[in-house]
Every structure is written in structure tokens, then in C-alpha cells.
Specification:
5-stranded parallel beta sheet; alpha/beta; elongated; 2 domains; Rossmann fold; single chain
């Protein structure tokens, strides 16, 4: 919770009396990171699966005071990682009141603030800025100009009577306005090369130049950029002199552990209905299968947004079923919801040229592999004869995305061993009918995929036990 601003020093004199000591931005980040490392508090909350790879390199870069580039394929958490660095800033920071570039009250650098210090001394008014306001992010686009990033002449100020050579006619860009904070630049290679040149002084001399003004404005900025591998984007590159000015280049990666992928999906997805961990595991395995498939363009990669969007779609399918059947208490995702949702996500996958026309077939095949692997992982060793015995005398069970949980369970009847399946899938003894139906349908699909049960699909309905 933010502290009320009226309790903080309001002038430079009060600030000095309070014992406040200002720090450069990189020293502030370093000190706060060290404090978290010593205390064992997570330095980068919300980051999953990078504990042994990316985070140690990031911590070293921050401690070294290096501006850095995060390099990796789409959907590897580069932007999230960039934003978490700002969480290392002090919660509140003082600045000269009304300053466009958030000057340090003890050491202002802009013409306006230096004049105010000379005039007011310790009566200089001070205001406070929260850490959230000290993070600036810009998506680099081909139409980004030097004026957007660095600054330009403000024609309004010139029209008001100031001379063209007056430094106060400058309208500051995003970088100087991020002074004493963290500046994140997404998709750096998309910047035109002539615009990248404008960042040379920011990274090396720590100052800016605007339209030939004799203006030296020493900035205090921690700069982080992200980029996709050049061999995929083909939209541009980071020019060599600029790459040389970054202190560190960190390579991100897709998650390698299924458990981490499930954790990330659960953390990021906004689910409108219950989705069991076994279905999230199916989505995590499907994502891994796609990332390893020769049918998919691996230069493009499979973003973490794919399983997140899939989980949200699966939950929405369950909610739709509950609304259509009137069984709102049983809004629980089932295996049948996977097949309904995944075709809508084909736009997130770039297939190899030779797979044109086979995209849906490839996705269906990889989904079956994911369900089978999850079934073996979760239910191997259980006696599932109670399920197979249901079909011993030619009985069939019909299910689908609009079949109510109560209808599915009524067709199955009492199944010996169902309680053990529920336990293995993480459902409590007092599981609701939606959860029981989800467990039963997953088991039936697993039995089919391991060739212990027949199945056919007719008009969007799945019939288990059909010969």
C-alpha cells in the first residue's frame, strides 16, 4: 500500500534533515538486489523456470551495473523479465517538483532546476515518485523517430517568444523523461539503424544531443532492450556499435520442465471455469511436442501465450457447456474441450512449407500424444478394469462439449476404482459431478489411446465403446 505523500519531506531542506542520501540508479538497483539476495526474498517474482539459467546471469548484470539486451524467441518472457527489474527500485524517490526529467533535488542537471536551486536553495520544492512511475517502456517500431526517443524542438515554446537556441525550447523524448529510472525498449532491431545511432551517447557518455544544441544533459538511466533472433525476424538488426555499448546480452529460452510450464499457465491464464491440473499438463506437453516437431517452423517458436490462451479457451468451453445445459455447478473443463478450442489457435503456430493443408492433422496427432503421455504419467499402475468392464456387453458412452456432466455420469453408472482415479488427478473425495465427469472422460480417452477401448466420432460427438 502506498504511503501518504503528506508524510514525506516537501523541500530540499527537509529532505536533507531527514538524512536521505541519493544514489545513482544502478547503485540503487545493486543495493536493493543485494538486500533481497541476503534475505532470501525473490528478486524477480513471477518468473518461472529461469532460476538456474537466466536469473543468475541477470543478477550478475544488475550487480555489475550493465545495461543489457534480452535475446530470445517470442513468448519466452522477455518483457515480463524486463518489467520485474523495475521492482528492485526504491518504493518512493524524491525529485524536483515539476521537473520533466525528474531531477535529483541534490544534483539537478536541467537548466530550469539549476536556476530554481540558485534562487530557492533549500526551499526548493520536492515531490515523490512511486517506483511504478519510474519504469518507462517503448515498443520499437519502424516509424519511431529520434524525437520520440531523445527529444526535439518544441514549436509552441518557440512561438511563445523563446529563442531557437534556448535549451528550454527542447521537448524531451522518452529516454530523458526516464531519467533516474528504468527504460525498457521492446524489439530493438525494429528501430531503423539511423535511430539506433541516437542511443550511442545514452549508453556510453550517458548524455543526449538534440538538433545540434550545445546541450549536455547527463542522464541516469538503466536501459534494457529485448530482441528476437535476427535469423527469424529479418526485420532488422542491432547495429554492431550499439551492441558493443550494452554491457550484457542474456539469452532466454522456453521452459524445459513440464511442471514449470503448468505453473506458468496456472499463474498467467485467466480461467472462467475450473481446469484440472491434468488438462494443464496435457497443454504443457502439447506445447513441448510442438516445439520439438519437425512440422513446425522452430525459428518462429511456440510462444508461452499458446498454452495460456488454450487454457483460457478450454475454460470458456466448459463455461459455455454449463450455460447451455443449465448445470452451472459443473463448469469444469473436460478432455472434449481440448479438441474444440485448439483449432482456433492455429494462427499462433507457423508450420513448415511442406505441411500446408495438414496443419489440423499435425495438431490433432500431437494432442493425442500429449493426452496419452499424461494418462501414463498420472494413471499408470491403477486397475482400470472397472472402466473397461462398463463396455464388456456392448454398452456405449456418448460425450461431447455440450453433453452435461450428469448425463455422462448417468451413462457410466457406478465404476469401481473411480475414487482412486480422482485421487491421482488431484480431486478430493468430495469431488463435484463436474470434476468426476472430467476424471472419467480423461480416463476413457486414455484407455482409447492405449488401445484398450474403441472410439468413434460422429457429428461432433464422441462415442466410447463403439466397435
Amino acid at each position: 500500500m502506498r504511503e501518504p505523500l503528506d508524510r514525506k519531506p516537501a523541500t530540499r531542506g527537509e529532505l536533507r534533515a531527514s538524512g536521505y542520501a541519493s544514489r545513482r540508479i544502478k547503485a540503487e538497483l545493486r543495493d536493493n538486489l543485494l538486500e533481497r539476495l541476503h534475505s532470501g526474498v525473490t528478486a524477480f517474482p513471477g518468473i518461472v523456470g529461469f532460476d538456474e539459467t537466466v536469473l543468475p546471469e541477470l543478477e550478475s548484470a544488475v550487480l555489475a551495473g550493465h545495461d543489457l539486451v534480452l535475446l530470445g524467441e517470442r513468448g519466452q518472457g522477455k518483457t515480463r523479465l524486463m518489467r520485474t527489474v523495475a521492482g528492485l527500485l526504491d518504493e518512493w524517490s524524491p525529485q524536483v517538483a515539476g521537473c520533466e526529467i525528474h531531477d535529483d533535488p541534490y544534483a539537478p542537471v536541467c537548466v530550469r532546476c539549476r536556476s530554481l536551486v540558485a534562487e530557492l536553495g533549500d526551499e526548493l520544492p520536492v515531490e515523490w515518485r512511486h517506483r511504478d512511475e519510474r519504469y518507462t517502456e517503448k515498443l520499437a517500431t519502424p516509424d519511431t523517430s529520434v524525437g520520440d526517443l531523445i527529444g526535439d524542438v518544441d514549436p509552441v515554446k518557440v512561438a511563445q517568444g523563446r529563442t531557437l537556441g534556448d535549451p528550454e525550447t527542447v521537448h524531451y523524448g522518452l529516454v530523458p523523461r526516464a531519467n533516474r529510472g528504468v527504460f525498457g525498449l521492446n524489439e530493438l532491431p525494429d528501430l531503423a539503424e539511423r535511430i539506433q545511432v541516437a542511443l550511442f551517447n545514452v549508453l556510453e557518455e550517458r548524455d543526449i544531443q538534440v538538433r545540434g544544441y550545445s546541450l549536455r544533459l547527463p542522464l541516469d538511466v538503466f536501459l534494457i532492450a529485448t530482441a528476437n533472433p535476427e535469423d527469424y525476424t529479418n526485420r532488422g538488426r542491432i547495429i554492431t556499435p550499439l551492441k558493443d555499448r550494452f554491457g550484457a546480452e542474456l539469452r532466454t529460452h522456453y521452459l524445459t520442465d513440464i511442471g514449470d510450464e503448468v505453473t506458468l499457465i496456472r499463474q498467467e491464464a485467466r480461467l472462467v471455469a475450473e481446469v484440472g491440473d491434468h488438462l494443464l499438463e496435457v497443454l504443457a506437453r502439447l506445447t513441448r511436442n510442438l516445439r520439438e516437431s519437425s512440422s513446425v517452423d522452430q525459428r518462429s517458436g511456440i510462444s508461452a501465450r499458446f498454452p495460456i490462451a488454450a487454457a483460457e479457451g478450454v475454460a470458456a468451453s466448459a463455461l459455455r457447456r454449463a450455460a447451455r445445459t443449465g448445470d452451472h455447478e459443473a463448469a469444469v473443463a473436460r478432455t472434449c474441450d481440448l479438441g474444440v478450442v485448439l483449432p482456433t489457435l492455429l494462427g499462433k503456430i507457423e508450420f513448415e512449407m511442406g505441411e500446408e493443408g495438414r496443419e489440423q492433422a499435425v495438431l490433432d496427432h500431437l494432442l493425442r500424444l500429449a493426452v496419452a503421455a499424461t494418462f501414463r504419467d498420472r494413471l499408470s499402475g491403477l486397475d482400470l478394469s472397472g472402466f473397461t468392464n462398463v463396455f464388456a456387453e456392448g454398452q456405449v458412452v456418448e460425450t461431447g462439449d455440450l453433453v452435461a456432466a450428469s448425463d455422462l455420469l448417468a451413462q457410466l453408472g457406478a465404476v469401481p476404482g473411480l475414487s482412486k482415479v480422482l485421487s491421482k488427478l488431484g480431486y478430493a473425495d468430495a469431488a463435484g459431478r463436474g470434476q468426476v465427469a472430467a476424471a472419467a472422460e480423461f480416463t476413457l480417452e486414455g484407455l482409447y489411446l492405449t488401445r484398450r477401448l474403441e472410439k468413434e466420432t460422429v457429428a461432433g460427438r464422441t462415442i466410447y465403446g463403439a466397435a
